[in-house]
């Protein structure tokens, strides 16, 4: 299947350790899928809320579709995630642990349908973030040295 990535949560891998990833469908209204296909979605402040029976994408912003009339959608409405019951139970059990949350990592189109990749995540401490920055800078320096030698 052809996958087209529409939006990514770039801070997710920097702010969190991603423990386990899931693929979820999104329950959308007509004008929302048109906006998502146009790339008008933001996952910056978004998170996943699980209430035992359903999982919800909360605080994601899907811009109103320009060509839609009065039937346009609310940009910040909670959107239901389409997951299997076993997956919802696994998410429900995971968020009961201290320091664990569920975050969206990317939105993509797969077979004409909008899919959301979510991850069970544990927050990084400040020293973990500093180590990641240092590692990234040393990798860049090594790449520079290799390029200058060639």
Structural commentary:
- The model has no long low-confidence stretch (mean pLDDT 89).
- The strands form 2 sheets. Strands 1-8-9-2-7-5-4 form a 7-stranded antiparallel sheet. A two-stranded antiparallel ribbon has the order 3-6.
- The protein contains 4 helices and 9 strands.
- The protein has 150 residues and is an alpha+beta fold.
- The chain has one domain (3-124): Small protein B (Small Protein B, Chain: A).
- A hairpin with a 2-residue loop joins strand 8 (100-110) and strand 9 (113-123).
- The chain has helices at residues 12-15, 30-37, 85-95, 126-149, and strands at 3-8, 16-26, 41-42, 47-50, 55-58, 61-62, 79-82, 100-110, 113-123.
Topology:
Blueprint: E1 3-8, H1 12-15, E2 16-26, H2 30-37, E3 41-42, E4 47-50, E5 55-58, E6 61-62, E7 79-82, H3 85-95, E8 100-110, E9 113-123, H4 126-149
Antiparallel strand pairs: 1-8, 2-7, 2-9, 3-6, 4-5, 5-7, 8-9
Brief account:
Helix content is about 30%, strand content about 35%. It is α+β, with helices and mostly antiparallel strands. It has one domain (about 5-125): Beta Barrel (Small Protein B, Chain: A).
Keywords:
150 residues; alpha+beta; Small Protein B, Chain: A; seven-stranded antiparallel β-sheet; two-stranded antiparallel sheet; 4 helices; 31% helix
């Amino acid at each position: 299947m052809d996958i087209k990535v529409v939006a990514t949560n770039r801070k997710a891998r920097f702010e969190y350790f991603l423990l386990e990833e899931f693929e979820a469908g999104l329950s959308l209204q007509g004008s929302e899928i048109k906006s998502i296909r146009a790339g008008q979605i933001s996952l910056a402040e978004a998170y996943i809320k699980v209430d035992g029976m359903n999982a919800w994408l909360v605080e994601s912003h899907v811009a109103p579709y320009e060509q839609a009339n009065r039937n346009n959608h609310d940009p910040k409405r909670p959107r239901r995630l389409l997951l299997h019951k076993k997956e919802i139970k696994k998410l429900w059990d995971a968020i009961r642990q201290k320091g664990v949350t569920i975050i969206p990592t990317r939105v993509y189109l797969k077979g004409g349908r909008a899919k959301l990749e979510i991850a069970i995540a544990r927050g990084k401490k400040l020293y973990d973030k500093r180590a990641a920055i240092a590692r990234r800078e040393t990798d860049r320096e090594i790449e520079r040295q290799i390029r200058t030698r060639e």
